[in-house]
Specification:
Elements (H helix, E strand, L loop, with lengths): L17 H21 L9 H19 L7 H4 L6
Helix pairs in contact: 1-2
C-alpha cells in the first residue's frame, strides 16, 4: 500500500465548523428577532420572526463552510533569512 492513499489533499478536507456556525447563526437570528420586536419594528405576531432564526442558521453554516477566510500562502509562512 502506497503512502499516496493515506495522505489527503488540502482541498479534500472539510473547512470550518458548520455545527458551531449553525448554533451561532441561530442565536444571531433569535436576538435580531427579539431586538426588532422590542424596538417596535415588528409586531409580536409577525411571521418573519420565525424566519429570522432559520435564516441565521443557514447563514452561519454557509459562512462556517467558507472559513477560514483568505488563508496564508507558502510565501507568507517562510521566515525571512535577513538577506
Amino acid at each position: 500500500m502506497s503512502n499516496d492513499s493515506i495522505t489527503r489533499d488540502e482541498n479534500d478536507r472539510p473547512h470550518g465548523r458548520p455545527v458551531l456556525g449553525g448554533i451561532a447563526g441561530f442565536f444571531l437570528g433569535l436576538f435580531v428577532w427579539l431586538d426588532l420586536i422590542l424596538f417596535g419594528v415588528l409586531p409580536l405576531e409577525s411571521g418573519i420572526g420565525y424566519l429570522l432564526p432559520v435564516l441565521g442558521i443557514a447563514a452561519g453554516i454557509g459562512i462556517a463552510m467558507w472559513a477560514p477566510f483568505g488563508g496564508r500562502t507558502a510565501d507568507d509562512r517562510t521566515i525571512d533569512s535577513g538577506q
